[in-house]
């Protein structure tokens, strides 16, 4: 029974999150249903991470076990055909060893958060970025983000519903960049770590936005972190600006496909 790695992107708006749930749509259920059209049986796929309702992905990774041996490009095409009209697409497919696991073999996860700060309502980016009406100070936000780097007890930035065994995580990257857009600016925050706590990134962003408006100083971020108290956190920002952009493994299972090495 061959195992396949799938790189998946999806628009999170219509879904109650990645994870399959009873009586509500999910990105996982959409992919499993498409696989069921290829091999009629109940499919259960495992993914690198669970995203919440409204959160998007450009680089989610999952794996599935199938009876038939598929050429990876053909499997990708077949799954995408049956995914329509759901806003989900498989953008990479590869055969992997039987002991390869989308979640447990992963060495890092990467997230992007988009904020667009301008007075007018978002039109083309509605549902794809956090609309923030106040200008944001990029340098101050980066100074605040730097306080989060490294290994810490992130209890302050952890949802009370988080099921992780420990709040201690190591944040390897926290970068803040900005550029002008019509009528305002877009701010992009990127975070990279082996794993994240529930709501950790959205808690980071909401807190750093307070720094960007001048309501908090970068030193206040350190104080919140050191408090190890959820009540010390800034507001949790909305989900629509968050994207799971990639998952790192000891080797890239999609490298051959991305390089054009597979016959189409």
UniProtKB/TrEMBL annotation:
GO terms for molecular function: RNA binding; tRNA pseudouridine(38-40) synthase activity. Residues 9-104, 145-250 form the Pseudouridine synthase I TruA alpha/beta domain. GO terms for biological process: tRNA pseudouridine synthesis. It catalyses: uridine(38/39/40) in tRNA = pseudouridine(38/39/40) in tRNA. Its EC number is 5.4.99.12. It is an enzyme of class 5 (isomerase). Homodimer. Formation of pseudouridine at positions 38, 39 and 40 in the anticodon stem and loop of transfer RNAs. This is tRNA pseudouridine synthase A. It comes from Flavimaricola marinus.
